[in-house]
Design a protein that fits this description.
Elements: E1 6-9, H1 15-26, E2 30-34, H2 39-53, E3 57-60, H3 67-81, E4 86-89, H4 104-132, E5 135-140, H5 153-173, E6 178-185, H6 191-204, H7 208-216, H8 228-239, E7 250-253
Parallel strand pairs: 1-2, 1-4, 2-3, 4-5, 5-6, 6-7
The structure holds nicotinamide-adenine-dinucleotide.
């Protein structure tokens, strides 16, 4: 049980992050949600988590491209909950383009959100974790932290980067009761995957069905999408005492993709 623990989950208004926030709340943790979206929908999600799981749920609209807002989000969570024990760096975006046409501002945004935001949350949260002698840092990386695909240069660079960052942080914090691990999903059916289908159709000259079968699920030997709840269950496991000696690991949940 995670009762008396508090979590911050970046990018948790949708997809994997929302599933992780709910799973942690189900175990009794207070949660701070973060991400973009329609204000009424976010408030309904926040209030729904409090009502369903009997925990405190807060929302921060901090933009993961803005270091000062990120520091403010962690400070706000520490102020409200008195602690941040679990930090899930999940916010992420994708952009699909040949490298020579890749818009530099898209490159910068992907590196900021998918990689640098984790540095900014970690540097803000670690002092409190060290003081309490407990912390769980969980970075949602990707199969693309281990292998590459064409037309995703920024994403692959950011995800390989966060895998390395995770290992470095794990070593630094190893004697402080703080673990740092990556979860690396293959293709999970979320808005992020759905929304890249049109650009992949364009970049590769394929139909929607061909993108799903021949690009997305082609990489995944099980021929099934991963579910958000399957990813969330691993995050819960990493917060448990059974996972105390797991640190610096990169856990694949990819239907066998990176075994190939
Ligand atoms: P999603 O699009 O459903 O959710 C992304 C979340 O990040 C949303 O809450 C969004 O509002 C938030 N976000 C985006 N930009 C932000 C910003 N600047 N500041 C704050 N929040 C921001 O995507 P998802 O598929 O759930 O992806 C979540 C994570 O999982 C990402 O890091 C992604 O790279 C990773 N991932 C996804 C898949 C997949 O197949 N869906 C596979 C491997 C890894």
């Amino acid at each position: 049980s995670l009762t008396s623990k508090a979590a911050v989950v970046t990018g948790s208004t949708s997809g994997i992050g929302l599933a992780i926030a709910k799973a942690l709340a189900r175990e009794g943790a207070d949660v701070m949600l973060n991400g973009f979206g329609e204000a009424d929908a976010i408030e309904a999600t926040r209030a729904g988590i409090e009502a369903e799981f009997g925990v405190r749920a807060l929302y921060s609209g901090a933009d993961m491209t803005k270091p000062a807002e990120i520091a403010g989000m962690i400070a706000e969570a520490e102020g409200a909950f008195g602690r941040v024990d679990i930090l899930v760096n999940n916010a992420g975006i994708q952009f699909v383009s040949p490298v020579e046409e890749f818009p530099p501002e898209r490159w910068d945004a992907i590196i900021a959100i998918n990689l640098s935001s984790a540095f900014h949350t970690v540097r803000a949260a670690v002092p409190g974790m060290k003081a309490r002698g407990f912390g769980r840092i969980i970075n949602v990386a990707s199969a693309h932290s281990l292998v590459a695909s064409p037309f995703k240069s920024a994403y692959v660079a950011a995800k390989h980067g966060i895998a390395g960052f995770t290992k470095s942080v794990a070593l630094e914090l190893a004697t402080h009761g703080i673990t740092a691990n990556c979860i690396s999903p293959g293709y999970v059916w979320t808005p992020l995957v759905e929304s890249q289908i049109p650009d992949t159709m364009k970049a590769r000259g394929l139909t929607k069905e061909q993108v799903i079968e021949d690009v997305l699920l082609k990489a995944q030997p099980t021929k099934e999408f991963v579910t958000v709840d399957q990813v969330a269950a691993i995050a819960v496991f990493l917060c448990s005492s059974a996972a105390t000696q797991m640190t610096g690991a990169n856990l694949s949940v990819d239907g066998g993709w990176t075994a190939q």
